[in-house]
């Protein structure tokens, strides 16, 4: 399988045409639309057949690393096909291409790299693939969807454990009496791209850790809930202990909460 790796100019030409059209009215609206969303060639999927034309990367953080999404395809014709040009309607994406000549029946991959920096909000961008059999009309439109979370949205959660942001990493309990089960909550949010289900395997018998909701979807806020069981609290219980949070990436020291008992 060939991985396509050719850096494209990302529609800078279209941007300059838009500017000219706005200032001098040189280009019609129809012409601009055809540049930003060109009409596909008829039967394009019989030239390069993609496994999927649309992918959704979910939710990512604005200061996260660039994300690469692959679009596998196969040359379904009886002759070699060369990918001659790739354009996109957003400067937030780049495409790479290594060897653009695809033999009959050969598989390949178009890799689209999305940079979330300064791109907070909904993502809906298209990439157009041109070949030696379709110089003027693209054979395919590859759509990339998703949502980028603004950094400022989580400023109220200054602490971090991998994809989890938290209000704090320490909780303090007032004196715990027998027959009571006091709780302390830590507001948190999943700022990653995958659901988070948190737990802790190294807790004293008198303490529990849970989350509400029990599984946090990407972009969702919730609470870490630490509960002390008063009936199980020994008289010689430590005045403080550490809670290592499982379910997030990072060193143990980065995944540790401090619990204090007054």
Question: Can you give a write-up of this model?
Answer:
- With 262 residues, the protein is mainly beta.
- It folds into two domains: 2-150, Immunoglobulin-like; 156-261, Immunoglobulins (Immunoglobulin-like, Sandwich), CATH 2.60.40.
- The protein has helices at residues 12-24, 29-36, and strands at 2-4, 48-50, 54-61, 67-75, 81-88, 93-95, 101-102, 107-114, 121-131, 140-149, 159-161, 164-166, 170-173, 183-190, 207-212, 221-228, 240-244, 256-261.
- Strands 1, 2, 4, 6 and 8 form a five-stranded mixed sheet that branches. Strands 3-10-9-5-7 form a five-stranded mixed sheet, with no helix packed on it.
- It is elongated, with a radius of gyration of 26 Å.
Keywords, separated by commas or semicolons:
262 residues; Immunoglobulin-like; 2 domains; five-stranded mixed β-sheet; 2 helices; 8% helix
Helices, strands, pairings?
Elements: E1 2-4, H1 12-24, H2 29-36, E2 48-50, E3 54-61, E4 67-75, E5 81-88, E6 93-95, E7 101-102, E8 107-114, E9 121-131, E10 140-149, E11 159-161, E12 164-166, E13 170-173, E14 183-190, E15 207-212, E16 221-228, E17 240-244, E18 256-261
Parallel strand pairs: 1-8, 3-10, 13-18
Antiparallel strand pairs: 2-4, 4-8, 5-7, 5-9, 6-8, 9-10, 11-12, 12-14, 14-16, 15-16, 17-18
Short characterization:
The chain is mainly β and 262 residues long.
Give the C-alpha Rg.
Answer: 26 Å
CATH architecture of the largest domain: Sandwich
Contiguous helical run count: 2
What is the total number of structural domains?
A: 2
CATH superfamily caption of the largest domain: Immunoglobulins
Task: Report the end-to-end length measured between terminal Cα atoms.
Answer: 63 Å
Q: How much helix, percentage-wise, in residues? A: under 10%
Largest sheet: 5 strands, mixed
Q: What percent strand?
A: 35-45%
Q: Globular, elongated, flat, extended or rod-shaped: what is the shape?
A: elongated
Mean of all residue-level pLDDT scores? 85
The topology string of helices and strands comes to EHHEEEEEEEEEEEEEEEEE
Q: Given this structure, which CATH class of the largest domain is correct?
A: Mainly Beta
CATH topology of the largest domain: Immunoglobulin-like
Backbone structural class = mainly beta
- Count of DSSP E strands? 18
Low-confidence segments, given as residue ranges, are 5-25
């Amino acid at each position: 399988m060939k991985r396509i790796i050719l850096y494209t100019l990302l529609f800078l030409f279209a941007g300059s045409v838009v500017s000219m059209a706005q200032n001098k009215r040189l280009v019609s609206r129809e012409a601009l639309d055809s540049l930003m969303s060109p009409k596909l060639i008829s039967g394009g999927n019989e030239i390069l057949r993609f496994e999927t034309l649309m992918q959704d990367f979910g939710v990512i953080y604005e200061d996260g690393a660039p994300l690469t999404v692959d679009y596998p395809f196969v040359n379904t014709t009886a002759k070699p096909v060369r990918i001659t040009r790739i354009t996109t309607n957003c400067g937030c994406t780049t495409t790479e291409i290594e060897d653009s000549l695809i033999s009959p029946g050969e598989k390949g991959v178009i890799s689209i790299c999305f940079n979330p920096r300064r791109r907070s909000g909904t993502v809906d961008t298209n990439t157009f693939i041109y070949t030696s059999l379709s110089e003027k009309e693209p054979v395919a439109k590859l759509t990339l969807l998703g949502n980028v979370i603004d950094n400022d949205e989580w400023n109220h959660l200054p602490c971090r454990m991998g994809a989890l942001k938290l209000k704090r990493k320490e909780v303090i309990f007032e004196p715990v009496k027998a027959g009571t089960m006091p709780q302390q909550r830590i507001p948190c949010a999943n700022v990653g791209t995958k659901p988070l289900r948190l737990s802790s395997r190294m807790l004293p018998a008198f303490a529990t850790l849970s989350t509400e909701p029990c599984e946090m979807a990407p972009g969702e806020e919730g609470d870490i809930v630490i509960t002390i069981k008063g009936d199980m609290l020994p008289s010689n219980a430590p005045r403080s202990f550490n809670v290592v949070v499982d379910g997030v990436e990072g060193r143990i020291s980065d995944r540790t909460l401090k619990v204090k008992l007054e």
